Amino acid sequence: MTESTVRPILALTMGDPVGIGPEIIVKALVDARIYQVCRPLVIGDLSALERARLALDPALKIHVADRPAAGHYQQGTLDLMVLKTLEAMGAQHGYGIARRIEQVSRDVLRLNEGTVYTSLLRLQQQGWIVSTWGVSENNRKAKFYSITRRGRKQLVSETENWERIAGVIARLLQLAPGGDA
Fold first, then answer.
1. Residues near 72 by Cβ (< 8 Å), separated by ≥ 6?
2. What's this model's pTM, rounded to 2 decimal places?
């Protein structure tokens, strides 16, 4: 595997937090080979995982994602683009949102409807968008999505976070070979 290869995220779900599940997961995380093929993401009871870590390998470091999207930059990025599209254009149906993002990206991004609808469902569950039924420009029944007040607040927060991360990346890319900016 080359350094440029992106390793997929492997979600490990703990079944029984007081049973053997956390111990098996910690044993897998201690094995360096797992990091050669994937980026493990453990879903479950942190306290049970911590107990198993302390019993089996106290040196193992566990990084905690404090919100579901913290480890999923692509998902979060699409959500940000959908929220911004809805803020800028008003109510849109899923197909229109996808095409607008592709248009603004000058076709660098190609989105299938399944990916966009998954994002729309996630955003709706968070209360950041709402949907209503309407008629599309093709005179067909379609679900139209709009950003909510909570969604606008989230958009401000996510935009600030994106700008902060983009600034860090830009500064790192400007580093000279000796490490000077």
1. 9
2. 0.58
